[in-house]
Structures are given as structure tokens and as C-alpha cells.
């Protein structure tokens, strides 16, 4: 029996599944509705469904690897549920109990210096913050000894109040983790039921506030992640891996110890899958747009690699773990259209999700969504997933008409207005990830995927002046496909602030980080290890750093000079200036980083056979673009390489739909991607 690899991406509306047969190279895709009450149910249903489609059997015997993308770890924080962090406590250094209250004293964009802004609740309220005596200096030297008796009192205090998840962040523990480790031993002895996260394990770099919040997010999601992983492992009866937000995967057994690394794991997989698809088709740099039921995730790929950041966040909580630089906007197929108190039409960020879903799902939804607008305008077929989910077109029409009546608009203008607002929300996310990063959006094609990603492709080309939109085969399953394209990857960081670093000290830190990476890869069963070094540098006096890649090999003065030169060049590229030849602006080293990578064999995308004949439509129906008109419908599976579809038209497939507006042309390339361009360019 041939072995297969399976990727499962759990989204807000659908669970997407991709199977790759390692012997034949065959790729099988499917989707199943997500089950928000217990995501494991949708996961298992999807795995059994794709196995049955491939070999007619639901047995897991042939599965050699199973990779999962999930947002279970962070949903409670993203949704800001009042009880989401009620089990959470915080231990910090004596005298620093208000580190979460003070934060960065910054006001969000859009408020300026307005005194109307109210600081949101902290992840841990001050009455659940405890302090312990003991102090280290910035080099990790002990100034005052750790107060073991006070630590025991703190542990008992948490135990008596039922606080079962505890984050520990002591001052300067990035330089010396000894006090934090002793606190963990005290908690194990006095409060064994508690799960504990240490900042020196989660994020060993300076900036106390960000390190504290990142550690607390890790502690907050550990209990739910452990339960979810244990439930899945028991039902699968076999090991599996989980996608991380840094673009790598990790075994489920390891993920339970560092659940924060799985934030945005599904969107990260989508960006990586889209990068491989675009690169294979000859586009090493691209914008990726992942449109789902709840939100749209946007990233940028440059020279085959998605951009990384450590300045991300989970909801309103800053998290400085390495993650693919993704901008998320609440503009998905399930985004709800509503009327503001001022009487204007708004769309999102609230979503109907999978349950009850849009009105057209017929599951009790009562609010008009983006999907309902598409259905009313005829741009989406009257069913989803090849007929598995019939849509109630009449109910969608009634909902749009009722909303239009409240706005004083025709139903057509109301529906197109909903889609226009959604398109501008998506375009703003694209501008944020490109223009605000110093990139010209017109230099990139856009890879549009996800169930709702291709629906607004033509409008985004117009709004942003994009070169083209690329719609991959099975666009609704690109994130699940991306899960099968990524290596095992762990990131390690150490703060080392110095204006004139010693090569010996830098080399010693990098060797220690590489040893940690090697141990983790050994546990994952990898004989081949790859290490990627990088460093965060800044000009002396600056508050934030620029990360640059660092060479392999021994560390000497020439090695330090290469990294410094890369910093000057990158600073100039990002900000338009640098101080390469100005001795008044010294270069300061801040953090040293190592990524340990266990490489895998990626699936290959096979070329499609050419189509010499003119493609034939399979049906027609009334579709509204600028006006109602009888429009040709194509089945994507009938199109071969070289096929050309001119708008107005609609191209349908199992998991998604591409409306080709008047004035646009879609051409299938050699790898099955539909390349959409404006006829005016």
C-alpha cells in the first residue's frame, strides 16, 4: 500500500484537507464544515473523507505524516471572552507588579492624544499579580538572592484561589534563567496542578513588558491546547505535527510545551503554500491573499520567502515570537453587513461563521453577509462543495432586499455596495503589508486563494493597479496544501547588547543556540540539521532593531563586519538612509538568533496538458456585474493549459468560484493556475 501525507487546516467555516500520495504524486483535496464546539470532530471527518476519496477506505494505516494548522490555541484571546484568562496568574520581580498596567504608555492609531481612549483590561488584572524578592542585573549577575519563602507563599496563594495557569517573568531573566527555574520548582512542589510558563523558555530576549505578555499568552493557552492535542492524539491513535507561525512545523508532543508558537498557524501555511505555487509558476515574489469565511489574511513573498516579523500580536496582546508577517482584516465570506448609528452601510468585522452562517445556508442566520450578496448577484452558484451544501437563494434575496429597504437603496446597489466595502477592506490590508513596508504594490502579482479569496480578485486588480491575480487550483485548500510544504523549524534567541561585541562571546552564544536547536531536531528524528543565523542590530540610541541574516562559519572580526554591512544596507532600504560612513552613529548589537531546520521533501506540482480548443461553457445564468445579463458558466476542471476565458463569465470549482468581470480575461497557465488580468493593461 502506498504511503500518503495529509494536511488539515481548520478554519472558522470549513476544515480543508489535502492528501499527497508519496508514490504517485497524486493530490486529493476535500472540505468539510468546521465544528466550532469541538474542532476535533471536523478534523476527523475531513481526514476520513479524504482517505475514502483516495483509496475507498477510512483506515489511517497508509498515513505516513499528518500536519495540522489550527487556531485553537488563541481563539479565546482573539474573541476577548471575559472568562478567557480568568484562570491566569502572573509572578514577577518585587517592585515590578505594575509592568502590565504601565505597558508602553502608547495610544492606538486613530486616537492621537485623545483622552476619550480607555485602556483595555490587562491580560492579568493587578489583583492576580504576585511578586517575589530577588534581583539580577542586566548581565545576569545576582544582586539579591531569590526569596524561596516568599515564592512558596505566592504559590500557595495561587493554589488557594484556583489559579491554574501561571506566567513567570523576572527582571533580566533573559541573561540568567536561574531564578525563574527555581520559581518553577517551588510551584511544582506547592501547586502541582498548575501549568507554568517561564519567560526564559518562551522568549529569552529583553523588553520586560513584551516578554511578560508573550509568556502570559503562552500560559493562558496551554491548558486548552493540551486538552485539544490529547483529544486528537487519542482519536487518531498516532503522532501528528502542528504548523507554527514561523513557517515551520513541530510534533504535537512538543507543541504542548510551547503552544504560543502555533498562533496564526493556518494563515502561515497559506502564505507558504501560495509561495510554492507562485514560485513554480515563475513568480518568486507575490502578494498572498487568503480569503476565508471569517477573515482575510494578507502576506508578502519576496524571492520565494514570506516576510517574517517579531512585532506581531494576538488580538490586542503583543507577542514577540517569530511569525510570518501577516495582516488580518475581518473581511471574509461570512462578514456581516450592518447599518451604523449614523445610517451608513458597514461590513465586518463580525462574522456569521460556520454556525449559524450566512442567511443562504438555511441554518438560522438572519443577518446579510458577503456570501449572501454574491449569491443574490448570481456570482456564486446555488450550492457549495459541488452540491454538498445547497444554498437558499430566495432567502439571500429576501435578506438583501430587507437591508436595501432600510438603506433606501435598490437591492442590486446594496449588494454591490457590500462587496465594494469588503474589497476596500481587503485592499487596505494589502496596502498595509506593502506600501507601509516600503514596497510598491504594482510590482507584485496577487495569489488569491481560500474559499472566498478569488471572489473579489477583479475588483482588487482595479483598486490597487495590480499586475495580475493568480488563482491556484483548488484555491480553498491552499492552506492545507501549504502544511505539506514546510520543514520542521525551531527558533532560539538570546539578548546580547554590545556596541563592540567580542567574536568569542558572539560565537559562544550562537554555539549554545545551535546546540539547543540540534537537541530539538534530534527529538524530532532528523539526522540532517540546517541552521539559519540572524541578528538584530540598531544605531546606538534607537529604540528598535533591524534584523539581518548572518553567515555560517566561525565568528571573527570579518564575520562581524559582514553582519554590520548587511545592517547598514537593510536600514537604508527600509528607511532611506544609513550611517555606514559616519563614526558618530555606532552600530549596536541587540539579539542573536538561530533557527534549527529539519528539511522535508516537498510535493511537486505537475504541469497540466495543453488545451487547443476554445473552452466550452457548461451552463448560463443571470449574473449582475454592471447590470443583469445572461452569463456563461465554466467548470474549471474542464479547462486545460492555455484556455482563455473572457469576461463577463463565472468559473466554478469544488471549493471556490472566480467571477470574471467584464473587461477582464482569465488564462490558465501550464500549472493549472488561472491568471486574471485587466484588458486595459
Automatic annotation (TrEMBL):
Residues covered by the Acetophenone carboxylase-like C-terminal domain: 505-671
Pfam families: Hydant_A_C, Hydant_A_N, Hydantoinase_A
Residues of the Hydantoinase A/oxoprolinase domain: 211-491
Record-annotated Hydantoinase/oxoprolinase N-terminal domain positions: 5-190
Name by which UniProt lists this protein: Methylhydantoinase
Organism listed in the record: Microbispora siamensis
Lineage of source species: Bacteria, Bacillati, Actinomycetota, Actinomycetes, Streptosporangiales
Amino acid at each position: 500500500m502506498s504511503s500518503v501525507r495529509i494536511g488539515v487546516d481548520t478554519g472558522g467555516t470549513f476544515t480543508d484537507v489535502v492528501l499527497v500520495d508519496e508514490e504517485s504524486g497524486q493530490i486529493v483535496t476535500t472540505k468539510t464544515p468546521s465544528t466550532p464546539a469541538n474542532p476535533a470532530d471536523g478534523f476527523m471527518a475531513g481526514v476520513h473523507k479524504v482517505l475514502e476519496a483516495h483509496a475507498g477506505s477510512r483506515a489511517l494505516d497508509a498515513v505516513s505524516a499528518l500536519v495540522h494548522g489550527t487556531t485553537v490555541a488563541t481563539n479565546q484571546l482573539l474573541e476577548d471572552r471575559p472568562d478567557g484568562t480568568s484562570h491566569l496568574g502572573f509572578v514577577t520581580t518585587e517592585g515590578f507588579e505594575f509592568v502590565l498596567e504601565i505597558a508602553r504608555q502608547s495610544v492606538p492609531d486613530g486616537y492621537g492624544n485623545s483622552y476619550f481612549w480607555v485602556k483595555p483590561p490587562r491580560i492579568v488584572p493587578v489583583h492576580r499579580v504576585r511578586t517575589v524578592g530577588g534581583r539580577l542585573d542586566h548581565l545576569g549577575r545576582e544582586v539579591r538572592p531569590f526569596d524561596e519563602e516568599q515564592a512558596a507563599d505566592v504559590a500557595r496563594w495561587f493554589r488557594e484561589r484556583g489559579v491554574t495557569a501561571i506566567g513567570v517573568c523576572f527582571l533580566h531573566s533573559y541573561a540568567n534563567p536561574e531564578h525563574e527555574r527555581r520559581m518553577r520548582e517551588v510551584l511544582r512542589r506547592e501547586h502541582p496542578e498548575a501549568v507554568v510558563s517561564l519567560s526564559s523558555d518562551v522568549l529569552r530576549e529583553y523588553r520586560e513588558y513584551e516578554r511578560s505578555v508573550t509568556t502570559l499568552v503562552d500560559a493562558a493557552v496551554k491548558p486548552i491546547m493540551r486538552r485539544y492535542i490529547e483529544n486528537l492524539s487519542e482519536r487518531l491513535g498516532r503522532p501528528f505535527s502542528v504548523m507554527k507561525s514561523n513557517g515551520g512545523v513541530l510534533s504535537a508532543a512538543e507543541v504542548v510545551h510551547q503552544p504560543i508558537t502555533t498562533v496564526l498557524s493556518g494563515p502561515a501555511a497559506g502564505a507558504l503554500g501560495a509561495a510554492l505555487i507562485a514560485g513554480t509558476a515563475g513568480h518568486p515574489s507575490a502578494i498572498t491573499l487568503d480569503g476565508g469565511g471569517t477573515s482575510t489574511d494578507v502576506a508578502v513573498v519576496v524571492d520565494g520567502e514570506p516576510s517574517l516579523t517579531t512585532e506581531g500580536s494576538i488580538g490586542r496582546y503583543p507577542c514577540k515570537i517569530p511569525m510570518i508577517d501577516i495582516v488580518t482584516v475581518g473581511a471574509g465570506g461570512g462578514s456581516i453587513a450592518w447599518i451604523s448609528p449614523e445610517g451608513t452601510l458597514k461590513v465586518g468585522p463580525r462574522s456569521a461563521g460556520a454556525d449559524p452562517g450566512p442567511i443562504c445556508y438555511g441554518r438560522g442566520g438572519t443577518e446579510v453577509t458577503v456570501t449572501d450578496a454574491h449569491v443574490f448577484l448570481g456570482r456564486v452558484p446555488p450550492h457549495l462543495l459541488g452540491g454538498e451544501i445547497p444554498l437558499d437563494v430566495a432567502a439571500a434575496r429576501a435578506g438583501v432586499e430587507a437591508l436595501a429597504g432600510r438603506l433606501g437603496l435598490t437591492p442590486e446597489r446594496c449588494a454591490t455596495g457590500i462587496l465594494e466595502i469588503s474589497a476596500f477592506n481587503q485592499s487596505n490590508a494589502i496596502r498595509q503589508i506593502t506600501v507601509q513596508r516600503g514596497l510598491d504594490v504594482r510590482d507584485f502579482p496577487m495569489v488569491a486563494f481560500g474559499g472566498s479569496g478569488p471572489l473579489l480578485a477583479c475588483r482588487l486588480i482595479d483598486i490597487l493597479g495590480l499586475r495580475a491575480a493568480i488563482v491556484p487550483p483548488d484555491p480553498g485548500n491552499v492552506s492545507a496544501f501549504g502544511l505539506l510544504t514546510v520543514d520542521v523549524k525551531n527558533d532560539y534567541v538570546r539578548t546580547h547588547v554590545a556596541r563592540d561585541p567580542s567574536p568569542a562571546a558572539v560565537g559562544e552564544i550562537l554555539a549554545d543556540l545551535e546546540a539547543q536547536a540540534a537537541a530539538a531536531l534530534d527529538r524530532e528524528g532528523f539526522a540532517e540539521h540546517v541552521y539559519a543565523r540572524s541578528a538584530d542590530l540598531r544605531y546606538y540610541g534607537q529604540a528598535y532593531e533591524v534584523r539581518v541574516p548572518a553567515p555560517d562559519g566561525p565568528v571573527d572580526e570579518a564575520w562581524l563586519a559582514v553582519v554590520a554591512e548587511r545592517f547598514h544596507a537593510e536600514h537604508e532600504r527600509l528607511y532611506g538612509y544609513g550611517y555606514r560612513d559616519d563614526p558618530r552613529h555606532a552600530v549596536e548589537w541587540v539579539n542573536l538568533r538561530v533557527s534549527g531546520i529539519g528539511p522535508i521533501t516537498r510535493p511537486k506540482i505537475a504541469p497540466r496538458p495543453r488545451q487547443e480548443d476554445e473552452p466550452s461553457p457548461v451552463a448560463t445564468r443571470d449574473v449582475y456585474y454592471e447590470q443583469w445579463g445572461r452569463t456563461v458558466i465554466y467548470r474549471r476542471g474542464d479547462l486545460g493549459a492555455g484556455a482563455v476565458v473572457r469576461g463577463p463569465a463565472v468559473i466554478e470549482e469544488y471549493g471556490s468560484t472566480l467571477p470574471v468581470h467584464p473587461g477582464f480575461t482569465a488564462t490558465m497557465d501550464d500549472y493549472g493556475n488561472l491568471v486574471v488580468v485587466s484588458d486595459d493593461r
